[in-house]
Amino acid sequence: RISLSGECYLDALDACYKNLRKKLNDRDVLAITDYNVFHTGGGYHIVRKAFERLVRNELPDSKGAERDMLVETKLHPSVTILKIVGPCHTVSSFLNTSAVVMNTMEKGLGKVICVFTYGSGCASSMYQMRIDDLAYFDSMEVWKLKFYRNALKCEPEMSFIHNFYVQTWMKFTYRPIGRKTFRIPVSKYEDDVYYLMEIDGFGRRF
After folding, report:
1. 88, 188: one domain
2. What is the largest CA-CA distance in the chain?
3. In what residue span(s) does the Hydroxymethylglutaryl-coenzyme A synthase C-terminal domain sit (predicted)?
4. Mean pLDDT across the stretch 108-121?
5. Which of 80-94, 148-162, 167-181 has the lowest mean pLDDT?
């Protein structure tokens, strides 16, 4: 059974698909798309439902094996990172687009991606893009190696900090003191990592 939020997601998908198809002079979107990317606020299951909904719209007589093949070729290249790190909400459409590039690299040049973005249904959109050049990305194999290497590298003081933050979960009007308490030097901070400095009385994070 699909939740109410899931129904809103799929309703927005239907509306955006209808608008994009109109702009494409009623051409089948899947037929002219190599890869599909979806907003992933709720995990892989809703993404697969959304993709299979598009397939049934264009190929109502398709069999299960045919749909599975389309999932494998058109959807799975975009969900590799999603399956590892989980839903990323706001950045998910862009992260999943990056996953396509990282999975295909040079083979993806000239390919067309259909992207569905979703903002609680109020600011949803669907558009196509073509890969004309490669930005600086590691291939998926290299990224996975770096990711798991960093995941395994956990110094003892980091475990203490994690436990400290668990104890302060959902606190408002709060300034984290874990880094100061455990005397973690700035040199230990990782690049490209967000460090929480303050939570105000409204739960806003800075």
Report:
1. no
2. 63
3. 3-62, 71-205
4. 90
5. 148-162
